[in-house]
Amino acid sequence: MHNPLAPKAIMVPMTADRPARLALRASGQMAREHGSRLILAYVSSEPGHMEQIGFKLESLDQIRDRMEGELGAIIQEELGDLPHEAVARVDDLGDGVVALAQEHGVDLIVLETRPRSLLQRVFVPSVSAKVVHHAPCAVLVLPAASI
Fold it and tell me: What angle do CA 79, 83, 87 make, to 5 degrees?
């Protein structure tokens, strides 16, 4: 019998500096158990003004392919042969995750948070807090893996 509460689509936001190993592992396990679609979301916050000063920005396909390549070993280690989709967007990190979740009909976002200093908490907006407050679906926030 199918569990009506089981997510049909699970998304894990990923960046090169935050490979989200624990989120990958947890979402992979849920996807296997429930037959859910697994979507890895790559959000790049490249500033749009870079083109104006002579730099060519990557296309979304190039961003996705580059990130899949850079994180390929981690993805393979955490997910094994579990199939996944990869999507990309150029946007603010929090806004981009929320937009991709809306665009792809995501039921659950699994992300990691990391320890932040008092100054960071005061002056730098939290991506996970933004996602929790604006996501169109359930959000599971895990503490950063100590791997």
Answer: 95
Distances (CA, A) of 141 to 4, 93, 110: 22, 15, 6
From CA 15, how far away is CA 21, in angstroms rounded?
11
Burial class from Cβ neighbours inside 10 Å (0-12, 13-18, 19+) for residue 142 reads middle
Paired tokens of 133: 């407050």
Structure tokens belonging to residue 99: 């937009």
Q: Where are the beta strands (DSSP E) in the chain?
A: 9-14, 37-44, 85-90, 108-113, 138-143
pTM, to two decimals: 0.83
Residues 112/145, Cβ–Cβ less than 8 Å: yes
Q: Would you say 115 and 86 are in contact if contact means Cβ atoms under 8 Å apart? A: no
Mean pLDDT, consecutive 10-residue stretches, the chain (147 aa), reads: 80 81 92 94 67 58 82 89 90 91 96 80 81 95 71
Question: What is the rounded end-to-end Cα distance, in angstroms, of the chain?
Answer: 36
